[in-house]
Amino acid sequence: MSEEIQNHIDAAFTFARRYCGQGRVANYIPALAEVDPSKFGIAVALPNGEFCCAGDADELFSIQSLSKVFTLTLALERLGDAVWDSVGREPSGSPFNSIVQLETECGKPRNPLINAGAIATTDRLIDGRSANATIVDILEFMKGRANDKSVSINDHVVKSEAGTGSRNRSLAHFMAAFKNLNHPVETSLDVYFSQCAISMSCRQLARAAYFLRLAGMIQFPPSELFLRNTAGRLTPSCWHAVITIILENLLFASVCPAKVVLAAASLPLRQVAVPLQFGRRA
Fold first, then answer.
1. Which of 18, 19, 190, 217 minimizes the number of CB atoms within 10 Å of its CB?
2. Counting beta carbons within 10 angstroms of the beta carbon of residue 152, is it exposed (0 to 12), middle (13 to 18) or buried (19 or more)?
3. What is the dihedral of CA 157, 158, 162, 164, to 10 degrees?
4. To which H or E segment does residue 213 belong?
5. How far is CA 100 from CA 49, 126, 144, 170, 179, in A?
6. Alpha carbon separation from 191 to 10, 68, 82, 120, 220 (Å, rounded)
7. Closest listed residue to residue 63, CA positions, set 190, 160, 201, 253
8. Which of 122, 128, 111, 131 is nearest to 70 (CA)?
């Protein structure tokens, strides 16, 4: 079975590789503009714990918006349905960094996978602690999901995001004006910028995201059970959004090399087959 999957991955890699260099890397954060656009890798986590990989599957990169899926997971596990007091669970139909709906909807973001919603989710996750304590908490969570203690934060990317984060600061201040943030804007953004700058490889991400395939049961290590009830707190629309953001940030790389690398978890086809746009790219 794994040999057959590896053959398919090798074929997909060969097909997609020809397009590398035709796109462009993101430049709205200076550190992202420095990334080599020729890097391309695939990693698929299999149920037996093995991986099928191709290309630059072990190349490290900042996970950016993929972090939203994991901080939402952690927030739901820690806070339960109280998360939805600060953020909705419906599509936005607007760019991922839009401020328009915050004004018309009293500072409550439509969902946790657009920037405003992710900042609100991170703010709830802080829960009265310091920014540094929360950052350590998120990083340890990612190390556990990836079963790899080498997962770290790229300080260069953090500084670059913080230095060019005017749009995100606007979103945060707007939510604060409507009293939809529980902590100072800079505290929430310190954590948000750091979570986006977590540095991981395709292989590490494939393993970390495996709980999506197992509906909340972690296979690594086999004895650990995680998030048994969290999946039930997500509406079908929100589950589709989780899958969509993974596809936008990962699978899209196979046809648009503007993205750096590809990491793929073993996702159920029934989830992948129903994409729902929660925040379109500007």
1. 18
2. middle
3. 10
4. helix 210-213
5. 44, 26, 37, 11, 17
6. 37, 12, 20, 11, 27
7. 201
8. 122
Residue 243 pLDDT level (bands cut at 50, 70, 90): low
7-49 tens-digit pLDDT: 999 999 999 888 887 888 888 899 999 999 889 999 988 878 8
- φ, ψ for residue 140, nearest 5 deg: -65, -35
C-beta of residue 91 within 8 angstroms of C-beta of residue 240: no
Mean pLDDT of 181-206: 96
How many CB atoms within 10 Å of residue 15? 11
Judging by beta carbons within 10 Å of its beta carbon (0-12, 13-18, 19+), is residue 216 exposed, middle or buried? middle
CA distance 203 to 220: 13
